[in-house]
C-alpha cells in the first residue's frame, strides 16, 4: 500500500525561541529550521512498515515556504520514495492554519489514493494538534491519534494510543489517518549514501491554486509574549516555617 | 539548498553529521580521554552511516564525493566537540591505492574499506631519524624472488593497532644509487595481521592527548611482491598528492575546533554574570573572541579555496599548506580565548575545554609543523633560497 507522510518545517528544537519585538509572532529570520520531531517519528514509522513489507511507497508532503524542500530532502534521505512540496507562501513568518493544511492534504490524498496518512500528532512550533483530526474528518476516514504502537493487519490497523491514565488499543479500518506520539519509535539518522540518493529522488512542486484550495488565514494573532521569567525563591529557616508558608501563603495544605 | 549563490552545498551532510555526533556528547569523549581508549562506538556509527567512505568512488561502494565534502564532515565532527583523529585516515589513506594501485588491488581492497570490513587507516612514513625529510628514511624493502623483505622502523604511525592494512613507504634502492634522494622509494600495502605474525611489532606511545599513535618495527618481515603499489621507485611521488588532501582535511578539523571553542566561549560569556552583568559585555572578554572569529573565517576561506583547487585537479600545494597553518593558528587562538573566557572553569575537565585545548595543540605540529610550512611558502612561493 501507499502511505502519505506530511512533514512540517519548524524552528529547530534546540533553538532558544525569541518573540518578535512587535509581538506578531516568533522571530524566524536566520534561525535554524528542522523537521518537526513528531513528523520524523511518522517518517520512521512509514519506513519501518515498508521494511516489514506492509508498505510499498512512501510519499512525503510539505506545505509552506519553498525552503521546506530541505525538510522533504531529509525525509527522502531517511527513506521516503518521493516528495510533494506545496509552496503556499514566501514569508517564513506566515504559518498556515491547520484547516488550510488539512484541505490541501485532502486534495493530495484524493490524487494519490493512499491507504494511510501517518502524521505527527502536532508541530512543536504552535502545538495546534489539529491537522490530523481535521484531515480524517474531511476525508471521512477513521482516525487513530497519539499512536505509541502501530500494527497493520489486513484491511485494518491496530493502534495503541497514549491516553490520560494509560494505554488504549483500538482497531481502525483502513484507509485511516494515524497521528503519532513521542514514544512510537526512535527515528534513524540519514546515512551519507542515502543523503546523496535523496538528491535524485523526485520532488514535485505545487501551489495551493493547483488544488483549488484557499489558504488565506481565518485567525488573527492578537499578541505573542514570552513566558514570565521565574522570580527568585526564599529560604526558610526550618520545617515549621515551611509548613506555615505552605499553609498560609501557598494555600496548598 | 536554498537559492542563494553562497549556499553551502553540504548543509544537509553537515546537519546529518551533527545529528549523529549528538549521540556522542562530551561525557563520551571525556571517559575515553581518561582511559586513552579508542572511540570504537563512534567510529562504528560513522562507518555504518557511510561517512568514512565519502571519497571512495561509487563503483567501489563509496559515495564518490569531492574532498570538500569530506572536509565538511570532519569539520562538523570537531565543531560538535568530538575528534576525527581516530578515523579520519580511513577516508583518505585509500587515495594512494585508488590513484596508483592496480585494478586488482582496487577491486580487492576498496569495497571492503568502503563498508568498514577492512580498516585502512595507518600510513607508515615518518621515522625517528627523518620527519619531513622523507628522502632520508631508512626502512628498506629488499626484493627476494616474489617477495620483499622489510626491515626498519616507523614512528608516529597513528591507529596502527586499529588498522587491518597499512600504506608503507620504504626505500627499495639505496639513496647512494639514486639521482635524487626522493627517488628509489616505494609504496606497499601491508596486511598488518600477516606482518605481525612474521616479525612486525607495534608499540603504542602515550601522549598528552587521547590519540592512538605508535612505533612500528620491521624485523625482516617478508611481504608478497604483489603488495607493491604502482611502480617500484616512484613511491615518493605517490604519497605527495595524499599529503595535500590530508592537510586540507586537517585544516577543516581545526576550523571545526575553532567553531566549537567560539560557540562554547560565546555562550558562557553571555550567561556568566559578575558585577551585575554578563562578562561578555566587557571588551576585554569580547575582543579576543571577535579576533579569533575573524581569524577562523579567514582560515576557512583559505581552506575552502584549497579544497576547490584540489577537487578541480589544480596544483594546491601552497594553498593546502597555508590553509593548514592558518587554521591551526585560528583554532589555537580560539582555544586560548575560550579557556581565558572561562577562567578557572576552563581547567575543569567537565567543561571539555582543556581536552579540546590539548587536542587542537597537536595541529601546530602534525601532520607538518608550522615552521616547515613557512619554509615551503618562503622557498616554493616566494622563491627565497633554502636554508637546508
UniProtKB/TrEMBL annotation, chain A:
GO molecular function list: electron transfer activity
Secretion signal span: none
Keyword field contains Electron transport: yes
PROSITE patterns: ETF_BETA (PS01065)
Residue ranges of domain Electron transfer flavoprotein alpha/beta-subunit N-terminal in the record: 23-215
GO BP terms, alphabetized: carboxylic acid catabolic process
Species for this entry: Oceanomicrobium pacificus
Alphabetically ordered keywords of this record: Electron transport, Transport
Binding partners and assembly: Heterodimer of an alpha and a beta subunit.
Function summary: The electron transfer flavoprotein serves as a specific electron acceptor for other dehydrogenases. It transfers the electrons to the main respiratory chain via ETF-ubiquinone oxidoreductase (ETF dehydrogenase).
Keyword Transport: yes
Protein's name in the database: Electron transfer flavoprotein subunit beta
Family label: Belongs to the ETF beta-subunit/FixA family.
Cofactor: AMP
Automatic annotation (TrEMBL), chain B:
Domain Acyl-CoA dehydrogenase/oxidase N-terminal: 12-116
GO molecular function, one term: flavin adenine dinucleotide binding
GO cellular component: cytoplasm
Superkingdom classification of source: Bacteria
Gene3D superfamilies: Acyl-CoA dehydrogenase/oxidase, N-terminal domain (1.10.540.10), Butyryl-CoA Dehydrogenase, subunit A, domain 2 (2.40.110.10), Butyryl-CoA Dehydrogenase, subunit A, domain 3 (1.20.140.10)
Keywords: FAD, Flavoprotein, Oxidoreductase
The protein's name in its UniProt record: Acyl-CoA dehydrogenase
Amino acid at each position: 500500500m501507499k502511505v502519505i507522510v506530511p512533514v512540517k518545517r519548524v524552528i529547530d528544537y534546540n533553538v532558544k525561541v525569541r518573540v518578535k519585538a512587535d509581538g506578531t509572532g516568533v522571530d524566524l529570520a536566520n534561525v535554524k529550521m528542522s523537521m518537526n520531531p513528531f513528523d520524523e517519528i511518522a517518517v520512521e514509522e512509514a519506513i519501518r512498515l515498508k521494511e516489514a513489507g506492509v508498505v510499498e511507497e512512501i510519499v512525503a508532503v510539505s506545505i509552506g515556504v519553498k525552503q521546506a524542500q530541505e525538510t522533504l530532502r531529509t525525509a527522502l534521505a531517511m527513506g521516503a520514495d518521493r516528495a510533494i512540496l506545496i509552496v503556499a507562501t514566501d514569508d517564513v513568518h506566515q504559518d498556515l492554519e491547520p484547516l488550510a493544511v488539512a484541505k490541501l492534504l485532502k486534495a493530495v490524498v484524493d490524487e494519490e489514493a493512499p491507504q494511510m496518512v501517518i502524521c505527527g500528532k502536532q508541530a512543536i512550533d504552535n502545538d495546534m494538534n489539529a491537522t490530523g483530526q481535521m484531515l480524517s474528518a474531511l476525508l471521512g476516514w477513521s482516525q487513530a491519534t497519539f499512536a505509541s504502537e502501530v500494527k497493520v493487519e489486513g484491511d485494518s490497523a491496530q493502534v495503541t494510543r497514549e491516553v490520560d491514565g494509560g494505554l488504549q488499543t483500538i482497531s481502525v479500518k483502513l484507509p485511516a489517518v494515524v497521528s503519532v506520539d513521542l514514544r512510537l519509535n526512535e527515528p534513524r539518522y540519514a546515512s551519507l549514501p542515502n543523503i546523496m540518493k535523496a538528491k535524485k529522488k523526485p520532488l514535485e512542486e505545487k501551489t495551493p491554486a493547483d488544488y483549488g484550495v484557499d489558504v488565506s488565514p481565518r485567525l488573527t494573532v492578537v499578541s505573542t509574549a514570552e513566558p514570565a521569567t521565574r522570580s527568585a525563591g526564599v529560604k526558610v529557616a526550618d520545617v515549621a516555617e515551611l509548613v506555615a508558608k505552605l499553609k498560609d501563603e501557598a494555600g496548598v495544605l | 539548498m536554498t537559492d542563494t549563490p553562497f549556499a553551502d552545498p553540504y548543509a544537509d551532510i553537515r546537519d546529518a553529521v551533527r545529528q549523529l555526533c549528538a549521540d556522542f556528547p562530551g561525557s563520551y569523549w571525556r571517559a575515553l580521554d581518561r582511559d586513552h581508549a579508542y572511540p570504537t562506538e563512534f567510529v562504528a556509527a560513522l562507518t555504518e552511516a557511510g561517512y568514512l567512505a565519502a571519497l571512495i568512488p561509487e563503483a567501489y561502494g563509496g559515495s564518490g564525493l569531492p574532498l570538500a565534502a569530506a572536509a565538511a564532515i570532519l569539520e562538523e565532527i570537531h565543531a560538535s566537540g568530538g575528534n576525527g583523529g581516530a578515523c579520519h585516515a580511513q577516508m583518505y589513506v585509500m587515495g594512494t591505492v585508488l590513484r596508483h594501485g592496480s585494478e586488482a588491488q582496487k577491486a580487492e581492497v576498496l569495497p571492503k574499506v568502503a563498508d568498514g570490513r577492512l580498516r585502512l587507516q595507518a600510513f607508515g612514513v615518518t621515522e625517528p631519524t627523518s620527519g619531513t625529510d622523507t628522502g632520508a628514511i631508512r626502512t628498506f624493502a629488499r626484493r627476494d624472488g616474489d617477495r620483499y623483505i622489510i626491515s626498519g622502523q616507523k614512528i608516529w604511525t597513528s591507529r596502527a593497532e586499529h588498522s587491518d592494512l597499512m600504506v608503507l613507504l620504504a626505500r627499495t634502492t639505496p639513496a647512494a644509487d639514486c639521482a635524487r634522494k626522493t627517488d628509489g622509494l616505494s609504496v606497499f600495502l601491508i596486511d598488518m595481521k600477516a606482518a605481525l605474525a612474521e616479525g612486525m611489532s607495534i608499540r603504542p606511545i602515550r601522549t598528552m592527548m587521547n590519540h592512538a599513535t605508535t612505533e612500528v618495527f620491521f624485523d625482516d618481515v617478508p611481504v608478497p611482491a604483489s603488495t607493491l603499489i604502482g611502480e617500484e621507485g616512484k613511491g615518493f611521488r605517490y604519497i605527495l598528492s595524499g599529503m595535500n588532501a590530508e592537510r586540507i582535511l586537517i585544516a577543516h578539523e581545526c576550523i571545526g575546533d575553532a567553531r566549537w571553542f567560539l560557540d562554547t566561549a560565546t555562550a558562557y560569556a553571555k550567561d556568566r554574570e559578575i558585577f551585575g552583568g554578563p562578562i561578555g559585555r566587557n571588551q576585554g572578554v569580547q575582543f579576543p573572541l571577535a579576533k579569533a572569529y575573524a581569524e577562523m573565517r579567514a582560515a576557512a576561506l583559505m581552506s575552502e579555496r584549497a579544497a576547490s583547487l584540489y577537487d578541480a585537479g589544480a596544483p594546491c600545494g601552497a594553498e593546502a599548506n597555508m590553509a593548514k597553518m592558518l587554521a591551526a593558528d585560528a583554532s589555537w587562538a580560539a582555544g586560548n580565548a575560550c579557556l581565558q573566557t572561562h577562567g578557572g572553569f576552563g581547567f575543569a575537565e567537565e567543561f571539555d575545554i582543556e581536552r579540546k585545548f590539548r587536542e587542537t595543540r597537536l595541529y601546530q605540529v602534525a601532520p607538518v609543523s608550522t615552521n616547515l610550512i613557512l619554509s615551503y611558502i618562503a622557498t616554493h612561493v616566494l622563491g627565497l633560497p633554502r636554508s637546508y
